[in-house]
Amino acid sequence: MPELIDHLGRKVELPEEPQRIISFSPAVTETLFELGLGSRVVGVSAFCSRPSQTSKVRKVGSYGSARMEVLHELKPDLILTVSGFQKDFSEALAKEFPVYSFELPSSVAGMVDLVSKIGIVTGKRDEARYMEFELLKYLGSIRRRPAMSGYIEIDLGGPVSFGSLSYITDALSILGVKSIYADSPKEWVQPDLDFVRQSDPDVIFFEPKMYSKYASEDLKKLVASRGWEQMGAVSRNHIFVSPGPLDFFAHHGPSFIREVLPWAVNKLEAL
Known about the structure:
The protein is of the alpha/beta class. It has 2 domains: 3-138, Nitrogenase molybdenum iron protein domain (Rossmann fold); 144-269, 3-Layer(aba) Sandwich (Rossmann fold). 37% of the residues lie in helices and 19% in strands. Strands 8, 9, 10, 11, 12 and 13 form a 6-stranded mixed beta sheet that branches. Strands 5-4-3-6-7 form a 5-stranded parallel beta sheet, with helices on both faces. A two-stranded antiparallel ribbon has the order 1-2.
């Protein structure tokens, strides 16, 4: 059996062709299905919602917790996680199961690299390389707009924005948008709402809490409660709410490149 060193620095013995995979990362889960491994995925987290076939896969926990009795019942020969928030969770699981932890991407290029690494770990190298080619081809077609300032916020149980270590900040930069927090040496930041107002960014992206029903009236109430009515992005209607009930910018699987970036490009081109 091959051995690889994962992002946590652990030497992990891997099956040649894993047959019973559990994924706690929505991005990893999406990639597994695209690599043709959907039939081997026996468990996912409650936040794994792409592709739609994941609705038929057993939910074994959340993003950072698991029902251990279910894991033992499913007898996985490989559990996949990512770094960051899942670090301690991954180390705890590794005491009882074969766990491989991938690095959480800090850039759009890192998303493509994640596809490659998943292909290596699961024995789907050729399929992963084809996916890489397709994703890189799209990225190469993006026309960078003239520079503008921007602010992005995701409701993760409270307002969260992103600094220089985040793939979201990198993605905005590719599109010609410099986040007002782009120089903060962090992955995520708790935004100072007065600072956002004073920065008066050219464009604002807002992502509501996953699975919530968010209407235009909710956005108006949010803007009013923060005293943002006079901000340029608001008065010019340059504030955009992510579509649908699923995580959007917060998801770093292949669909970020195929769906999130084109959506953002269309919004910016209309300005």
